[in-house]
Write a structure and sequence with these properties.
The structure is a homodimer.
Chain A (H helix, E strand, L loop, with lengths): L7 E4 L6 E4 L2 H10 L2 E3 L5 E2 L5 E5 L6 E10 L3 E6 L2 E7 L9 E2 L5 E2 H6 L2 E2 L4 E3 L9 E3 L5 E10 L4 E7 L5 E4 L5 H10 L10 H9 L1
Parallel strand pairs in A: 3-16, 12-13
Antiparallel strand pairs in A: 1-15, 2-5, 4-12, 5-11, 6-9, 6-10, 6-14, 7-8, 14-15, 14-16
Chain A binds a DNA duplex through strand 4 and helix 3.
Keywords (chains A, B): DNA-binding, Nucleus, Transcription, Transcription regulation
GO molecular function (chains A, B): DNA-binding transcription factor activity, RNA polymerase II-specific; RNA polymerase II cis-regulatory region sequence-specific DNA binding
Subcellular location (chains A, B): Nucleus
Chain lengths: 206, 206
Amino acid sequence: LGQYEHDQIHYYNQENINITLHNRDLWNRFHEITNEMIVTKIGRRMFPIISINIHGLDPDKMYTIELSFDQLDTHRWRYVSSQWQPGMKSDQPIQHLPYQHPDSPNYGRTWMKDTIVFPKIKLTNKIDHTGTSQVILNSLHKYKPKISIIDVILKKKIYEISFNETEFIAVTAYQNQEVKALKIRHNPFAKAFLDTENIKKEMTDE
Amino acid sequence: LGQYEHDQIHYYNQENINITLHNRDLWNRFHEITNEMIVTKIGRRMFPIISINIHGLDPDKMYTIELSFDQLDTHRWRYVSSQWQPGMKSDQPIQHLPYQHPDSPNYGRTWMKDTIVFPKIKLTNKIDHTGTSQVILNSLHKYKPKISIIDVILKKKIYEISFNETEFIAVTAYQNQEVKALKIRHNPFAKAFLDTENIKKEMTDE
DNA sequence: GACCTTCTCACCTACGTGTTAAGC
DNA sequence: TCGCTTAACACGTAGGTGAGAAGG
């Protein structure tokens, strides 16, 4: 049902739920190049944005959709000779609360009607940032976003999925020129930087 | 409990619900001067914005908050000699769907935590406007916004309130200079027009 | 003509980008 | 020095204002 073999899914009971990554092509391209994700002190939006479609919910039941970020290892990664390499061990992962989609809680009917997008979530490296839309991550560490569905009445998590294409390394500044170019081409807010040599090169490559 | 004598309240059962108008002072000033509210073809935000505080909900129960607009009479109003006067009878009121607050549905706990604001609602005079944030009104007719609370499980309206200060006459262009001046002073998006004689006059009056 | 509505416009708010230089 | 982070900045997107002319 539109699931890729390498998607990691966990059903907590026998629901027939199905989540697909809506902008999979862009995430694939991101993953192929080098998956750097900017985090800043004041918080930065993700690029690409997490965008999903859900099927198989009960239209009349109430659900909350959450986004959280699993730290994949305890390495501090380094960009050496145009490649990301695992560095020395770091501290334990920072604990962060899941980010609830702002339409939560809502009916299965509502969640299934349109593509669900997370454009407002902000990634930050500042511990004391307490805004509800802020998620705290460790720079130079590897993360994998995870989508969870919570049954509001049962107060239980009933489904979880994560996609390999959405893995990323948090950085405070881009290391790889191609990732930067990808964003400049696809994010309207970066349109001011379209006319540089790097972008033109990247565009002819594709 | 913070209710004014002239607020019109309707309890559908014995709940201890209490809603107060958060920006009552601004609405009072609006009502004293002349209560014109702009409606346009593409939809205009309200000024002032409806802004309320709710108490007495069950923190764990789920509610939907709605805003609707009751047409107060069937007159077509006219601005003559610096005053609004009832004109001839018009057609029957336009039917419009209530506007649901975008955080709906949600827990009583969430609704009571902060002031609830309706900045996104748009007033339009175009029948065929179907955006969910659009509410269709008849220009030159008198309206009174009404806030309703719906119990999500019972699927029943359990409370209704409307405030006299929030009555308004829908117009496609301001007739009264003082209302225009009030908006220019209080709405940041109108800051471009702050330095005119009318505004200065109004400011010294207050 | 009188009254009301619509359209285009300049001018704001609000905020999302990478750049660059400075900081640590 | 080196590697990474921060802050100020110019330059975009996106959208909310009344003004004033044009339309009905």
